[in-house]
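Handoff note, outgoing to incoming analyst
You'll be picking up this chain. Sequence as last confirmed:
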Amino acid sequence: MRGLGRALVAAALVGVAVAGTAGWAAGDAQEAVTGPPPGTAAWRADTTTGHPLPDPASASPREVAAFFGELSGPQRQALARRHPQVVGNLDGAPVALRYEANRRAIAATHDPRYTRLAAPDRQILAFDPRGRGQVAQVYGELEGAAHVSVIVPGSDIDARTFDRAKDPYGTPAGMAAALRDADHGATAVIAWAGYTTPVGVGVDAASGRLAEAGAGRLARLTEGLDAVGAPDPVLFCHSYGSVVCGLAAHRTDASDIVVLGSPGMRADTVADLGTEARVWAAKDPSDWIDDVPHIEFAGLGHGTDPTDPAFGARRVPAADAKGHTGYFAPGTESLNAFAAIALGDVR
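Most recent structure output, in case you need it:
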């Protein structure tokens, strides 16, 4: 009976949270974009290289890297011209070739929402126009980088909003730029809006459905970084993005996983994440996420607060950050700590 009582209390708390009185309000249900990129059928049918092309649905990033390593420069360029949406999203393909392919893919959409992404100074590592649109942009030089960080965002982020001017430190682009400034350009940072995020903070944000789809895409991104010789990344996971990182943790080779403003990682302790990465957690005193019940019941809620000492994460100081999106604001102790972690300066 005691166990049943706890379960009923948990269910009631989740219901209150989803209703909005504890931080979760109404939101629109989203359909996760998954599977290989558009244009895959034409790619599979292409025989111009004299060899089967790696299947985007099944080939590993290492297999993709090996395939491109055997091609001549003109052959690579020809594939990028014929199949820009595939090459631009193919983890393991040469980084510079992906940038070029994505410029072509973005221009081909003729969609004014994405025109800015095709600018010559943009290094777009991935672009998918399906659904609300997904994008990943690299800040700095990924090839040859000594340190790489990946920003994993939370709700309301897509290809249109990932670099919005409003509330910049709540966007992956703003966080990436702030981190680059704080470490004086010593790292390459990927602003990754590469999964379907919840809209608003409704049931999608309270469940793990979209996070599970995103976790697979994040794990493949890190496999692709490894395949092209990039160092093990540091993952900075904001809000619902920390749920994605928690579910992906055992499938990545991240050196560190840093969560901020987290509703939970779908784990009771760091050990439950199944990762060898160092896990860090930050939460400032004014973040509304602290009002969300840190429980998980019937698929809703995300479990233990990662800043709870019992969880076992290393605590990132964040006393001077403001609200839910202030952790990367210049001058904050949290941003200074993030820069040190990104550079591997903290033991």
